[in-house]
Amino acid sequence: MQKAVVLFSGGQDSSTCLLYALTHYAHVWTLGISYGQKHSVELACRKTILDILKQDRDRFTGSLEEDHVIDLKDLATLTDSALTNDKPIVMGANGLPTSFVPGRNVIFLSLAAALAYDRGADTIIAGMSQVDYSGYPDCREETLKSMTQTLSLGLNSPIHIEAPLMHLSKAATWALANELGGEWAINMLLEHTATCYRGVHNKRHAWGYGCGECPACVLRAKGYAEFRDMLHNNRLE
């Protein structure tokens, strides 16, 4: 497996996955989706990150190929998600947070598979995790297994979906980035990724930029604090 497509949003998780891909694959394409998300600042962040990776391409063995951004803004008109509409993030009557965007990852994976097929790649790398996450059903491992089968059948060509973060906590995700690129990678994630659901990117915290109150910020802050504790304990040993 020498070629991979990374679903790259500009957030912490997908940026870590991109570092992973450039370490494990020879040729890497990136795919971003503009789907009317309120935190569209992540689209600007992804461009900055790609520019940094191109400038520091000698840090990784993999080659960063062309980037693609797909416009799916009309997706916001089909759903009443808190990520695409002005409504609070709370637990819905269906047991899912109102930040859930129905069909989002299913659509994203299908688009990534189309790109992979055309580029002769057999792997899609995505940042889903079912450890520290909001309970989205399209982030579960069984969903990705089903999508792998569906896409492979639909394209009549084997497609593998790799989710390096699937069984990692947010602290472990920070640790993986540190393993892949050391302090350079951690600083890049802190300064240039956007995770905040409200799209706040002018308020700096120890863990990066964000409102500090939405579920994504709370989870990122908690994971970063645990990661720093892990580093501290290792130094003491």
Explain how this protein is built.
- This protein is of the alpha/beta class.
- The protein has one domain (3-169): Rossmann fold.
- 44% of the residues lie in helices and 14% in strands.
- The protein contains 6 helices and 7 strands.
- It has helices spanning 12-24, 41-55, 104-119, 141-155, 170-192, 215-236, and strands at residues 3-7, 27-34, 63-71, 123-125, 160-162, 204-205, 208-209.
- It has a 5-stranded parallel β-sheet with strand order 3-2-1-4-5, sandwiched between helices. The protein has a two-stranded antiparallel sheet with strand order 6-7.
- Strand 1 (3-7), helix 1 and strand 2 form a beta-alpha-beta unit.
- It is globular, with a radius of gyration of 17 Å.
- The model has no long low-confidence stretch (mean pLDDT 94).
Question: What's the layout of helices and strands?
Answer:
Layout: E1 3-7, H1 12-24, E2 27-34, H2 41-55, E3 63-71, H3 104-119, E4 123-125, H4 141-155, E5 160-162, H5 170-192, E6 204-205, E7 208-209, H6 215-236
Strand order of the largest sheet: 3-2-1-4-5
Largest sheet, in brief, is:
5 strands, parallel
What number is the mean pLDDT?
A: 94
Which structural class do the helices and strands define? alpha/beta
Helix-strand pattern: EHEHEHEHEHEEH
Distance between the first and last residues' Cα: 38 Å
What is the fold-level CATH name, i.e. the topology?
Rossmann fold
**Secondary structure: number of strands:** 7
